[in-house]
Specification:
Helix content: 10-25%
Distance between the termini: 27 Å
Strand order of the largest sheet: 2-4-5-6-3
Shape: elongated
GO cellular component, one term: mitochondrion
CATH class: Alpha Beta
Protein name: Dehydratase
Number of helices: 4
Strand content: 35-45%
Domain MaoC-like: 28-123
Mean pLDDT: 89
InterPro entries: HotDog_dom_sf (IPR029069), MaoC-like_dom (IPR002539), UPF0336/Enoyl-CoA_hydratase (IPR050965)
Number of strands: 7
Radius of gyration: 17 Å
CATH topology: Thiol Ester Dehydrase, Chain A
Largest sheet: 5 strands, antiparallel
Structural class: alpha+beta
Order of helices and strands: EEHHHHEEEEE
GO molecular function: (3R)-hydroxyacyl-[acyl-carrier-protein] dehydratase activity
């Protein structure tokens, strides 16, 4: 179940002398605005040449307001959030549902919430709900992820 304290700041009150440990229910988040350059660079690396990302007329003809950011580029926020807080994390799985388009220069908030944590040998298997929202709180991506974490100590980003 998604906790309604959506944009609660897990790192509030954090100081370099205190240690935060990941627990079920904790939120980690990152905001990002995807530029035209981001889409172009992603296209070069992924070979995604879909005209919906580059041709405004094509995008409008397909029913969009303008060119859209590739969904997988937006979803790249999730492994970045996890790896930046847990260096050495191994991303194991991700499910995604693309709910609404993201347009170039829109601010997107990526949020991951820990839903389950298990100790396996000397590492932790953590499951997360993963969501991306437009600046007005509208859900654009919904999913779940699993990652193997070397520690539950959260690095301050």
């Amino acid at each position: 179940m998604w906790v309604p304290r959506l944009f609660g700041n897990l790192m509030r009150g954090y100081s370099s002398s205190s240690t935060m440990v990941l627990e079920k229910g904790h939120l980690l988040k990152l905001s990002r605005t995807f530029s035209e350059s981001d889409v172009t660079q992603y296209s070069k690396l992924s070979f995604d040449s879909n005209p919906l990302h580059f041709d405004a007329v094509c995008a409008r003809d397909a029913g969009f307001e303008d060119r859209i950011v590739p969904g997988m580029l937006v979803a790249s926020l999730f492994p970045r959030i996890i790896a930046s807080h847990f260096p050495g994390a191994i991303y194991v799985s991700q499910t995604l549902q693309f709910k609404l388009p993201v347009y170039i220069e829109e601010e997107i908030k990526g949020v991951v919430q820990a839903t389950n944590i298990r100790l396996i040998k000397n590492k932790y298997l953590a499951k997360f709900e993963t969501k991306c929202f437009k600046d007005n709180g509208v859900l654009v991506i919904d999913g779940e992820a699993s990652a193997i974490l070397p520690t539950l100590t959260i690095e301050h980003v």
